[in-house]
Design the sequence.
């Protein structure tokens, strides 16, 4: 029971200090927030199959159509893990909720551009007072 903490016997400053110490230890152990330079993994067709889950002929078809990021040295194809991951993220489809929010916002923008009073009056003929 050494991990038990009774908060009623600690002051607010003591609790803050405990939290601060624990967070510092966590970030030191996990190196969260550090700008570590990651080396980009370069691989062959097997890397592309692993990341995309597509069959080998499908990947060859995407390469032929220049639809998938790749490099070619001689007859060998090379794929970058980072480029493939970005390519996969670009294909994200919107959910029904995201589409509904976008449609609602679109309608609001149109209403702001043409307020109802101006919208009605722009079609009425203006009579000149003579």
Sequence:
């Amino acid at each position: 029971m050494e991990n038990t903490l009774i908060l009623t016997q600690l002051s607010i400053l003591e609790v803050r200090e405990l939290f601060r110490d624990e967070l510092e230890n966590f970030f030191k152990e996990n190196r969260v927030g550090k700008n570590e330079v990651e080396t980009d993994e370069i691989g062959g067709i097997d890397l592309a199959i692993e990341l995309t889950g597509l069959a080998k002929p499908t990947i060859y078809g995407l390469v032929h159509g220049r639809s998938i990021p790749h490099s070619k040295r001689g007859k060998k194809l090379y794929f970058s893990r980072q480029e493939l991951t970005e390519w996969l993220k670009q294909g994200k489809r919107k959910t029904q909720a995201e589409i509904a929010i976008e449609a609602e916002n679109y309608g609001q923008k149109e209403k702001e551009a043409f307020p109802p009073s101006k919208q009605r009056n722009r079609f009425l003929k203006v009579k000149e007072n003579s």
In short: The mean pLDDT is 80. Strands lie at 42-43, 71-73, 76-80. Residues 12-30 form the longest helix (19 residues).
